[in-house]
């Protein structure tokens, strides 16, 4: 999809399932994917319309455990 963005994060491996459940709870804002080549790295597929909300959610989760924003990519 032309308007899809990848938000890449480094997270605690133990928190990936929790992050996935939180993003799924906000139906339709994004899809969490695990980078199997880089343990602890995930990316979240978002649209331009949901990017800000996902970044806000991830920042809030970053108050609970360590999350590092790595990059934003168009694809």
Mind describing the biggest β-sheet?
A: 4 strands, antiparallel
Beta-strand residue percentage:
35-45%
**What gyration radius follows from the Cα positions, in whole Å?**
11 Å
Based on helices, strands and strand pairing, what is the structural class?
A: alpha+beta
Under CATH at level 1, the class stands as Alpha Beta
Task: Please provide a brief summary of the model.
Pfam families: DUF4911 (PF16256). The chain is α+β, with helices and mostly antiparallel strands and 75 residues long.
Keywords summarizing the entry:
single chain; 75 residues; alpha+beta; Alpha-Beta Plaits; four-stranded antiparallel β-sheet; 4 strands
Task: Characterize the structure shown.
Pfam families: DUF4911. InterPro entries: DUF4911. The protein is an alpha+beta fold. The chain is built from 2 helices and 4 strands, in the order βαββαβ.
């Amino acid at each position: 999809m032309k308007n899809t963005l990848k938000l890449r994060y480094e997270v605690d491996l133990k928190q990936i399932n929790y992050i996935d459940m939180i993003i799924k709870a906000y139906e339709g804002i994004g899809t969490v994917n695990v980078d199997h080549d880089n343990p602890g790295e995930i990316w979240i597929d978002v649209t331009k319309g949901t990017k800000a909300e996902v970044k806000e959610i991830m920042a809030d989760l970053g108050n609970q455990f360590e999350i590092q924003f790595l990059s934003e990519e168009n694809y």
